[in-house]
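Encode chain A's predicted structure.
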Amino acid sequence: MNAPAEHPIVVDEFPALRRSLRVSIVTETYPPEVNGVARTLACVVEGLRERNHEIQLIRPNQSKAETRGEQASDDVLFHEVLMRGLPIPRYPHLRMGLTSKKTLVSLWARRRPDVVHIATEGPMGWSALQAAVQLKLPVCSDFRTNFHAYSKHYGMGWLHKPIMAYLRKFHNLTACTMTPDEGLRQELTDYGFHNVEVVSRGVDTRLFDPARRSAALRQSWGVAPDDLVVLHVGRLAPEKNLGTLTMAFEAIRRVQPRARLVLVGDGPSRKELQARCPDAIFAGMRHGEDLAAHYASGDLFVFPSVTETFGNVTLEALASGLPVLAYDYAAASQLVQTGRHGALAPFGNMNDFVQLGARLAADPAALHEMGRQAREAACQASWERIISRIEGLYHALTEGRPLPQPESAPARPRLAV
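Encoded structure for chain A:
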C-alpha cells in the first residue's frame, strides 16, 4: 500500500516577529504640556510600548516638584530621565532642556539603546545628537516645528537663514528626518536636508468624537441650538495668523448674524483679540475630555495658520465632526476635500479664505453633511499604521537596511463648494 500523503508544509503563513527594541526618545516637550508635539509624542510612546519596545524618555523637568535624574516606573518597558529645564522666551509654558553631551554619553554607555530618536532640535537635542554620534548609535530625528517660519512673526525675519542653517546641520547629522507630509518633505529637500521621510499623524477617535457635543456647554456660550459656533483651537500668538481668523468671522457674521466665535487656547495675542472681538468666548486652555467637548460643541473649525508642520488640531476637529476651513497645505491638504469636509483656500490667499468662510456659513445643511463626512475621513487616520511606519524605520536603521517607503496616498479630486 502506498503511504498516505503528508500534509504540505506551509511556509511564511504568519509574518516573522520583529525583535523588541530599546528606544531612547529625547524631547523638550511632553504632556501635561499642551501642544501638538507633546500630544503626538505621547501617542507614539504608547503605541511603541504596546508593541513591547522598551522606551527611555529623556525630557526636561517641567516644574520644581519634579526631581532631576532617572525616575522609577512600575512598567519595565518605560522609564523617564528628567534633565534641568528652563522656560523658553515668549513660550513660558514650555521648557528647554539643559544637559551635557557627557551626561548622555555616560547614561547610554551604561545601558546602550538600539536607536535614539530626537524629537526636538533645542539644546538637549543637540547634546543628544553629539552623544549618539560619539557612541555610534543609530539616530533619527523629527522636524515638527517651523521655528524658521516663526521668526518673521516676531520681527526677527533676519534670523530665518541662520535658523535654517542650524536646522539643516542638525538634521543632516541624523540617519533620517521624519516629517508629517510630502509638501514639507519636498520643501526641506529643496533647502538641502537629506534623508527626509514622511511619517504622518493619527488621532484618538475615541476621545475626539461628535458624541461629546454638549448642549449645556453651548448654552453657557449663550448660543441657541441652531446658532453657528465658529471654533478655533490653538495658541493665541502672532504666528497663528489670527487677523485672518477675525476677518473670516466678520464675513461669516454678515451671513449668520447670530454666529459666535469660540477660541480655545491662550497666548500673547489674547488681549489684542479680546479688544478686537469683545463678543468672542475665550475658553482658555482645555484638556482631555473637556477639550474634546469643546471641539464637538462647535459647528465650523477655522484654522488660518500658515506656519504648521502638520496641524494636529485639524485632525482633531475632523474627528469631532467639524468641517474645516484652512489653507491648502500640511494636514488640511492631506485630509480635507473642498465641498466634502470643509474648504481649502490657496496657501496665503487671505481674500479667498475669508470668502470661503462666508460661503460655508451660508448653507447650514451642507455644513452639517460635511461634518459627518469629516468624521469618516478622520477615522481613516490610524495610529496603528503610523506606529508601524516608525517601527519599520527603527528596524531599518538598526539593521543597516534601506529605509522603507510609506504607502502612497491616492490622488484626490478637488471639489467645488
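The chain is about 40% helix and 20% strand.
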